[in-house]
Amino acid sequence: MGKHERLPKDRIAARPRKIGIASAAQPQVRYFAFLSYSHKDAEAADKLHRQLEGFRVPSSIAGRLTANGVVPKRLTPIFRDRHELAAATDLGVEIRNALAGSQFLIVLCSPDAAKSRWTNAEIEQFKKTRLEGCVLAVILSGEPFASDIAGREKEECFPPALRFKFDRRGRPTTKRAEPLAADLRETGDGERLGFLKLVAGMLGIGLDELVQRETLRRQRRLAWLAAASLAGMAVTSTLAITAIQARDEARDQRRQAEGLVGFMLGDLKDKLEPIGRLDALDAVGSRALAYFQAQDKSALSDEALAQRSRALTLIGDIANTRGDLDGALRRYREAMASTEELARRYPDDPQRLFDHAQNVFWVGEIALQRGQTQPAEAAFREYKSLAERMVALQPDNRKWQLEVKYANSSLGALLYDRRNYVEASRLFQQSLRIIESLSAADPANADYQRSTVETLGWLADARFSVGSIDEAIAARERQTGLLDQLMARHAGDASFKQQAVVANQALGRLMAVSGDFDEGIKREQRATALGEQLLAAEPDNTDTIEFTAKAHFDLAKILDLDRKYDDAAAQVRSSCEATRHLLSLDTKVTWWRTLRFECALQRATLALRRNATEEAFPLAQQAVSAAQAMRQQNDVDGRVAIAQAYNLIGNLRLRTGDKAGAIAAWQAALAGWPSNTAETPRQLAIRMQLLGAVGQIEEAGALRQKLNAMGYRQLI
User: Fold this and answer.
1) Residue 409 and residue 452: Cα distance in Å, rounded?
2) Burial of 135 (0-12, 13-18, 19+ CB in 10 A)
3) 77 preceded by a cis bond (ω within 30 of 0)
């Protein structure tokens, strides 16, 4: 279904708005609703007309005062255009009067209705004189807002006047409307639940209450029927008929209950997720799961099985959010058993594939969180395969395209951490193409823009790691440019500014690596300034503290290379102070341990610049200890950090005249260097320095040529 409001989510009512200039007084209501439709949908209109006028409002609801007024006993009269006024002499005037005298406008939506001039004119007239919130859409066929999707314009079911808002003067605007809609399609709410949604919207009551009242009334009717049958008929044939009716009634009730469960797991869940109501979401999932556990699983329909799986997935998501990985994994696997079977039964149904893909991803994500990279990679590759099958079945579906993007990025990030930079780079490039295509189709979508920013960052890191430094710089420049636009457009969104801290810090490092110190300093200063702005508003945000500290460290390195030692020392002091604060909160966070290493290493380096070797030696030893602690979390990065610390110790010993001690330190650094792993340009540069220091000039020269070919000019 398209991006429109469904009827009703929790409690939907047509609430009055302030009267505009064009509607100084409300017209007297003579009709409960005006039914507008295309002549080609006359059969459906006739059926809905009969259902509405034949519907009896439950006695426990009738007479209640809601936002829509006093709830009537019957939904009458319903005006049906071009049917009751067939003999009128002036159709235009009569229809306008009927529209002005109707409390609601019900529009039967289909591709035929979307092209109907009369249907559109009636909507326009109603919106000019009545409350826009009283327009109710009933989807018969087609797809809402399909006209926004290239190649699918013929599927549009909403008339133009329904798709756009009107201002208080009754004039159409270019702002997109989100009409309340009941979906009678089999793929939507279905006829019965869709009809009840429409009624609930007109009465101004909750859907769940109306469904419950209807169910109770049907049960009472069934009880009276059974009693009358027992009293007046004792023959077997009559009992058989009653049993069949009871069976059908029970089946209808089960369908209604499952429809309500579907609403809970769909619209209601989507409402609660953005506001972070874990308790309410947990209640939704648990109530839905309790319903299915009370049923005979062998008797559940395929759709009921799918809903049960969604309930399990929701409960797994909540457990995962709360840090209960064992509980989450158990629920995901239980859900995955059902979604895998449904995907096998319906291999050409992308929704079945989507439901299965979500569980596959989360099983892989939990494996990744536990350091089980091989099963995580297998799960992410399966997730990617499922997403690609979804797109193959429905190439124009943006939701499925986004799943392929997510799959590529998830797998790419895992492969990047495993130092498979070439394949990771290819996957990030594919992700970028997808999200750029989606952004071009919907340039106002902030989520697409945010995803583009993140993908450009991953791509830049991957391209740098394979030695394509110019491409890495280009990706970061695009990223920072896009972030500048987003920060200007969304001034109150701190997340864009936080991303800009990281992006500018990374770009500053790249510019300095390529030899452009001035641009490197400019970018690092931009990163630190943005970080300090964020910290002024939110001083306890540890992510911002960490990102800003890294920018200060990088700025210090560039200033040091540019021989601005005092300025570099000021940056190091700022970073080390932030590092001490973070470690006072938790000493086990991997990235904060890295900051501790950087602090010790840079303080020792600056002491060496001042010839303060007595001060530098203990700091260098602190750097060794911090690097050894890093190795517990990441062996390769830890080994490289240890090599950097020993390289500095070698330089210190050489400064004091201990050449033998210096060579021993450099050789120790090379002896502990990681083997059988892909090396980034930065790691190549560190190893080149060590090889040159111990006199392996030829090997060091070969690495220098390789780095020059990449555009790598300076170790940062």
Assistant:
1) 11
2) buried
3) yes
Residue 217 is assigned to a structural domain of this protein: no
Helical ranges in 514-612 per DSSP H? 517-537, 542-561, 565-585, 590-609
- Judge if 66 and 156 occupy the same domain: yes
Tokens describing residue 218: 């049907």
Return the CATH number at 78: 3.40.50
pLDDT tens digits for 370-413? 889 999 999 999 999 999 999 999 999 999 999 999 999 999 99
User: How far is residue 3's CA from residue 144's CA, in Å, rounded to a whole number?
Assistant: 8
Q: Which residue type, as a one-letter code, is found at position 111?
A: P
Pair 626, 600: CB distance under 8 Å: yes
- Of 176, 121, 102, nearest to 144 by C-alpha is 176
Number of domains composing the chain: 3
Query: Residue 360's pLDDT band (boundaries 50, 70, 90)?
Result: very high
What's the domain range around 445? Answer: 346-491
Q: Is residue 246 part of a domain?
A: yes
Tell me, what amino acid is at 512?
A
Cβ atoms of 415 and 678 closer than 8 Å: no
Say whether pTM exceeds 0.85: no
Biggest CA-to-CA distance, the chain: 116
Q: Could you tell me the CA-to-CA distances from 482 to 407, 468, 486, 497 in Å, in that order?
A: 23, 21, 6, 11
The reply to whether 82 and 231 lie within a common domain is no
- At residue 108, the 3 state secondary structure works out as strand
Q: Are residues 463 and 416 in the same domain?
A: yes
Same domain flag for 167 and 263: no
Candidates 61, 90, 82; CA nearest to 73 is 61
Check pLDDT > 90 for residue 325.
no
Which residues are CB-contacts of 338 (< 8 A; sequence separation ≥ 6)?
A: 305, 306, 308, 309, 312
pLDDT tens for 236-285 read: 444 444 444 444 444 444 444 444 444 444 443 344 344 334 444 445 44
3-state secondary structure of 74: strand
